[in-house]
Design a protein that fits this description.
The protein is mainly alpha-helical. The chain has two domains: 76 residues, DNA polymerase, domain 1 (Orthogonal Bundle), CATH 1.10.150; 158 residues, Intergrase catalytic core (hpI Integrase, Chain A, Orthogonal Bundle). A three-stranded antiparallel sheet has the order 1-2-3, with no helix packed on it. A hairpin with a 2-residue loop joins β1 and β2. The longest helix has 20 residues. The radius of gyration is 23 Å and the shape is elongated. The termini are far apart.
Length: 275
């Protein structure tokens, strides 16, 4: 690993305080390029970098690698390791609208769960919680009961180490305590597997897939969609979701556009075929 790359990794870890997972992702992306070319990344020109990354046909994967390279090059320019700031263009990706579920669809899934067992009550509570909080699954699985303060949820293990507090629906809180009361052991974590260990991401995925046919992240999209459809301010939704940029939250504005279109189609006289 080149000294410039070591300095960059220290910068994003200490100064920018990125999560351990993010630092490892940057390290993996950038060291792979150095190992593939046998040359320090700082000595590679844009064309050589693009040629090296051309093995990635998936545009989203390619753009993640390019983002890592751009961040590294920008750091090197600001630290005067490079004379000029190189910025590689991202591959164009068609915009995909986030998938979400209606509350009715979620209720139908919940009705299929046998809540007479503690595992069933756990699954019920987990789905309710994800929809009621809009939390990322990584944030959810790190929670302890101490993180629930009255009707508020304190998310301490957020992306980018940015803590936030969000309101939590009483029905979600009630279902969690019902599950905890039925659980045959104690744990520092809320969400546990049948052995009493912290629930894994794979297990959480299997739960939501079993009853709803979607990943846990779709419930986060469903949370945001429900708020936007109800008229919530975009910046409030940004705060609740823990998005660093409002641009990220704006993917949900398609909901508002669809509602406006439907309203015009229903009520405006010129949408009727009367001419």
């Amino acid at each position: 690993m080149s000294r410039e790359l070591e300095a960059f990794l220290e910068y994003i870890s200490v100064t920018r305080a990125l999560s351990k997972q993010s630092v490892l992702a940057y390290q993996s992306d950038l060291t792979w390029i150095e190992e593939s070319t046998g040359v320090s990344l700082i000595k590679l020109d844009s064309l050589k970098v693009l040629n090296t990354l051309s093995v990635y046909e998936n545009k989203r994967t390619l753009n993640r690698k390019l983002s890592s390279v751009n961040a590294f090059f920008d750091f090197c320019y600001k630290e005067q390791f490079k004379a000029k700031s190189d910025k590689l263009q991202f591959a164009k990706i068609p915009k995909l609208l986030p998938r979400f579920l209606s509350f009715k669809a979620i209720e139908e899934g919940l009705s299929c769960i046998d809540t007479t067992t503690w595992i069933g009550q756990r699954d019920y509570a987990l789905i309710l919680f994800l929809y009621a909080s809009g939390s990322r699954i990584s944030e959810c699985l790190e929670l302890s009961l101490n993180d629930i303060e009255g009707e508020w949820l304190h998310i301490r293990h957020a992306k980018g180490e940015k803590e936030r507090v969000v309101p939590l629906a009483p029905i979600a809180i009630k279902s969690i305590y019902s599950y905890i009361d039925m659980m045959p052991f104690t744990s520092e974590f809320i969400w546990c597997n049948y052995k009493g260990s912290k629930l894994s991401r794979i297990s959480a995925y299997k739960i939501t897939q079993k009853y709803l046919g979607v990943s846990p992240h779709v419930l986060r999209h469903s949370y945001a969609t429900a708020l936007i459809s109800g008229g919530a301010d975009l910046r409030v939704v940004q705060e609740l979701l823990g998005h660093a940029s409002l641009m990220t939250t704006q993917i949900y504005t398609h909901i508002q556009k669809e509602d406006l279109k439907e309203t015009v189609e229903v009520y405006h006289p010129m949408t009727k075929e009367i001419f």
